[in-house]
Please model this.
Amino acid sequence: MNLGAAHASVATNGAIELIGAEKQFDTDEGPVRALARTDFSVRKGEFAVLLGPSGCGKTTMLRLVAGLEHPTSGSVRVSGRNLWHEDRRDTGAVANMGVVFQDPNLFPWLTVEDNIGLPLKLRGISKPERRKRAGELCALVGITGFEKRHPRELSGGMRQRASIARALSYNPDILLMDEPFGALDAITRDMMNIELQRIWLETSKTIVLVTHSMTEAVFLADRVALLSPRPGRIQEIIDVRFPRPRDVGVQSAPEFREIVDHLRSRLEH
Model:
């Protein structure tokens, strides 16, 4: 592990690059600076976690990467491509990313396999191919046998598994996740963290996850980027070098607790 100073240099071959990116929102009460000037990169195949207090700009930072928000200044690059050309978003760069939110946002009138296959339907993929892909992804995320069920028939954890499968349906290189397990109970959340790690190891995707849980961040991450209170800026980047695959037992290791305690101390101050 490395508890050294922040290091947020931008790599020219990064899967994701923020270069002097800032975001300000105009509100009825006046401008709100959500994210200060930020340089940050995520390497191809890396599992990066954005950690910070509520309202610190971590979700804004993720939305900038996803192309859901336009930076007020600076630039965002995805797989070597500029995400924005003035006010026009690069659809090719966006097509390389899948997004998972805290709410699974599954359509209640569709079955699990139809929810998973919906992005493929929108891309003109045939129904047999969609069903085949949905079956493969149900196996990957651990919900085989539930393809014909509707979201109301699934537990919260299973709905989130289906949401992850949908985000992976068109095989994006990058998976962006905004507190996907925040609404789950502690035991289910631990289980989903183990499953997400397994999926990442099997698919070699680049993952950026937003969380406010220090334990979750350290358990999942290759690197944790710690953001300051608003306006958000990266205070520190911590390398997490525990061997993979990790199980919940690693959370009892003194080295694990040292990183968590360090993060807690930084967040408290």
Remarks:
- The two ends are 22 Å apart (CA to CA).
- Residues 4-12 have pLDDT under 50 and may be disordered.
- Helices lie at 58-66, 91-94, 112-122, 127-141, 156-168, 186-203, 214-220, 254-268.
